[in-house]
């Protein structure tokens, strides 16, 4: 069975309450249920982890990476400068997909770099919470091609 990790970065625990005009009304629990449904349909076992701390995301990934086949990550506020998390993802040697609920390139009218984009096997931005399912499906298809 394919094993996947879904990492949720800073402030995503506040989804549904934090800026619903921008991020919608779905909570992180709602999104995880949707991801779990997609994973079950694809025959993927998925583990979720959210933290507001980059080091906790890295520690969690280090503890589990040897048992994984793919990773989906929403780096959230770490996107322009989470180099340690990016290094940890690249060091796994696994394909990973980046998800941004909103169109990240122009958050709040500012252009910010996405340091994760160039390394991502799959990139979903501005698709709302549906981007997670799309990233999981696309990554699953990529590993089946190999």
Written description of the protein model:
- The chain has helices spanning 20-23, 28-42, 54-64, 83-92, 130-145, and strands at residues 2-8, 44-50, 70-74, 96-100, 122-125.
- It has 146 residues and is of the alpha/beta class.
- Strands 2-1-3-4-5 form a five-stranded parallel sheet, sandwiched between helices.
- It contains five helices and five strands; from the N terminus they run βααβαβαββα.
- The protein has a single domain (2-145), classed as 3-Layer(aba) Sandwich (Rossmann fold).
What are the salient characteristics of this protein?
5 strands, alpha/beta, 146 residues
The low-confidence parts are: none
CATH fold call:
Rossmann fold
Name the average pLDDT.
92
Q: Structurally, how many domains make up the residues?
A: 1
Tell me the overall shape. globular
State the CATH class: Alpha Beta
- The total of beta strands comes to 5
What is the string of SSEs from the N terminus onward? EHHEHEHEEH
| Amino- and carboxy-terminal Cα gap | 15 Å
CATH architecture: 3-Layer(aba) Sandwich
Question: How many helices in DSSP terms?
Answer: 5
Give the percentage of residues in beta strands: 15-25%
Structural class: alpha/beta
- In spatial order, strands of the major sheet run 2-1-3-4-5
User: Which oligomeric form is depicted?
Assistant: single chain
Rg value: 14 Å
Roughly how much helix do the residues carry, as a percent range? 25-40%
Structure summary:
With 146 residues, the chain is an alpha/beta fold. The chain has helices spanning 20-23, 28-42, 54-64, 83-92, 130-145, and strands at residues 2-8, 44-50, 70-74, 96-100, 122-125.
């Amino acid at each position: 069975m394919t094993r996947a990790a879904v990492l949720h970065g800073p402030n995503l625990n506040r989804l549904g309450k934090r800026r619903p005009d921008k991020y919608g009304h779905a909570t992180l629990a709602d999104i995880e249920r949707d991801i779990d449904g997609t994973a079950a349909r694809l025959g993927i076992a998925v583990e979720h982890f959210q933290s507001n701390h980059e080091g906790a995301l890295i520690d969690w990934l280090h503890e589990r990476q040897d048992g994984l086949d793919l990773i989906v990550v929403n780096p959230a506020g770490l996107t322009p400068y989470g180099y340690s998390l990016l290094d940890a993802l690249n060091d796994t040697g696994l394909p990973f997909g980046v998800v941004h609920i909103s169109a990240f390139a122009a958050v709040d009218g500012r252009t910010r770099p996405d340091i994760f984009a160039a390394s991502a096997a799959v990139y979903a931005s501005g698709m709302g919470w549906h981007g997670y399912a799309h990233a999981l499906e696309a990554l699953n298809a990529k590993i089946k091609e190999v």
